[in-house]
Amino acid sequence: MNKNESKTLDVLLGTSNEGKVKEFQDIFIGYNIKFHSLKEFNLKCDIDENGCTYEENALIKANALKGLTKLPIITDDSGIEIEALGDHYPGIFSHRYATNNGGFARNNQNLCKNYPGSKAKFSCCICLVFPNQKPIFFYGEIKGKLADSISGKEGFGYDPIFIPDGFNQTFAQINEITKNSISHRGNAAKLLIKYLKKNKLI
């Protein structure tokens, strides 16, 4: 094994969501990349995600962190779009929508009760920024529907009520390896991995 093959790419993962950190770590198992969380570096970055798209919000997060580290930065923004709630909604407002409706547990319960079977889609945009380079974006999505009840204990956020197409279980019931291979974040990460491999960064 030569030096390039054994070198590890250290990256700051711009999130305080431990569930998201674990997902990235799991998706990249077997690749020479190490994710460092904001918590690990004791970084507290209060970011106003006021963009109009997943791409804009991911970039806002990355730009807010650029002055705090010399490491490459990976951020992402994601959301669920529920057909019964309207076009692309709640989308980029997914976290705020849940918060404004009593938190994820209550919000998920209400969505199952009021809109069971509604078509839904998870979307994700990953932003990669190396020092002194332009940001690069990678997109992924997964289509599915809302469950009629909260099911499963894995995952986070809307996972317990989202059933991906081709499955009869929610993201919170599907094992992590399968979920990460088909999820919106997993699909975006596949493109990121392809880019990093092509440029011999991992």
Keywords, separated by commas or semicolons:
22% strand, 6-stranded mixed beta sheet, alpha/beta, Maf protein, 202 residues, globular
Any chance you could write out the topology, listing elements then pairs?
Blueprint: H1 3-6, E1 9-13, H2 18-27, E2 33-37, H3 54-65, E3 73-82, H4 94-100, H5 104-114, E4 119-129, E5 136-146, E6 162-164, H6 176-182, H7 184-198
Parallel strand pairs: 1-2, 1-3
Antiparallel strand pairs: 3-4, 4-5, 5-6
Helix pairs in contact: 4-5, 6-7
Can you offer a commentary on this structure?
- With 202 residues, the chain is α/β, with parallel strands linked by helices.
- The chain has one domain: Maf protein (Alpha-Beta Complex), CATH 3.90.950.10.
- The protein has seven helices and six strands; from the N terminus they run αβαβαβααβββαα.
- The chain has a six-stranded mixed β-sheet.
- α6 (176-182) crosses α7 (184-198).
- The model has no long low-confidence stretch (mean pLDDT 92).
> Structural class of the helices, strands and pairings?
alpha/beta
- The run of helices and strands is HEHEHEHHEEEHH
Please tally the β strands and state the result: 6
The whole-angstrom Rg is 17 Å
Number of helices: 7
CATH topology name: Maf protein
Oligomer: single chain
Distance between the termini: 13 Å
Mean of residue pLDDT?
92
The CATH architecture term is: Alpha-Beta Complex
Uncertain regions spanning at least 5 consecutive residues = none
Strand content of the residues, in percent? 15-25%
